[in-house]
Amino acid sequence: MNIPMLDLVAQYRAIKDDVLPAMMQVIETQQFIMGPSVSQLEAEIARLSHAKHGIGCASGTDALLLPLKALNLKPGDEVITTPFTFFATAGTIHNAGATPVFVDIQPDTFNIDPAAVKRAITPRTRAIMPVHLYGQMADMLELMQIGRPLGVKVIEDAAQAIGARRKMDGEWRVAGELGWVTGYSFFPSKNLGAWGDGGMMVTSDDAAADRLKNLRLHGGAKQYHHDEVGTNSRLDTLQAAILLAKLPHLAQWSAQRREHAAYYTQALAEVPEVKPPVVDPANEHIFHQYTLRAERRDALQAHLKKEGIGHAVYYPIPLHRQPCFAHLGYKDGSLPQAEQASREAISLPIYPELTRPQLDRVIDAIRGFYR
Ligand SMILES: *Cc1c(COP(=O)(O)O)cnc(C)c1O
Q1: 97: number of Cβ within 10 Å
Q2: 203 touches 209 (CB < 8 A)
Q3: Is residue 92 over pLDDT 90?
Q4: Looking at ligand 1, which atom is closest to the CA of residue 186?
Q5: Which end of the chain is more exposed for a tag (fewer CB within 10 A), N or C?
Q6: Which residue's CA is minimally distant from atom 14 of ligand 1?
Q7: Is the domain of 216 the same as that of 135?
Q8: Is 44 inside a domain boundary?
Q9: Which atom of ligand 1 is nearest to the CA of 131?
Q10: The domain spanning residue 337 has which CATH number?
Q11: 362 and 242 in one domain?
Q12: What range does the domain containing 239 cover?
């Protein structure tokens, strides 16, 4: 029995009777650009994020790029972020005209270390961009406390964390609630995935919302009036309709992911060579990924491949060691926790539709490798 890393066809079969009529409705009206589904989804995602505004855009990458653009960054301005993330996090900082400043991660959660952020603040720091990696929120309370008194904005990269929450001062706070602007991705493999590209920004800052709406429409929310130069980064109406039809399933899917994670973690407790993911007790994780630290990771990877078991290494090269950022001067050993994580991390299949026998097969293959 081969187990894929992700089985979007299984999800499609389960929900197609909800999604296809929603698509057909858009097709019948031919309102492909900024149709009513877009504003409806914007309202729903804002509500889910305890934020005032949702602004759809073309991708998760643009959902980070546009708020960075809205900061009017100048050459030499710095944005502090994590090196242990998908490339878009730092690529957008560069493309918005600033310099990414990478700081190390916490070894347990893989998330940005607030103490390291604090040490990296300079007079040129304009923003902090944490990533809620694998579906577990970074320490937003600490990060807000670092940024707020300095006027440094926090932009949340919540591409992997839609619906994740964290207890702060005794209250549940969700991804997207505290940051200045938060970016989501609807890339098909994300927990809420479109059938193509898509993204969304949320914010409770009215002026920021207006600015972002401008930037996604060539700098002029009013047609043929351009207050500034923006770009075309709209969320497609068909994608919005698909996402609206999928959204009611999201909480259940996240719960199933958590159940699978608990099952893996219990079973793998008896394999000393692997360390299951650590959930910060303040967090409710949504397990976009279930990521182990494994001894002899590359050999384990080869074994899983031979056994027909899906797996992935997120991320094999930390961003401060990418050739495109060599000019920033980070060396091997500059950010040791991120580098160690890139040597040890391996993610297992965790999609909601997995069955117990499939989970057991994954577990057996890992046990078999270390036996
Ligand atoms: C997926 C992802 C993005 C980019 O999203 P796209 O929709 O693919 O552009 C950004 N950051 C992180 C952490 C991601 O996982």
Answers
A1: 15
A2: yes
A3: yes
A4: 7
A5: C
A6: 159
A7: yes
A8: yes
A9: 13
A10: 3.90.1150.10
A11: no
A12: 8-248
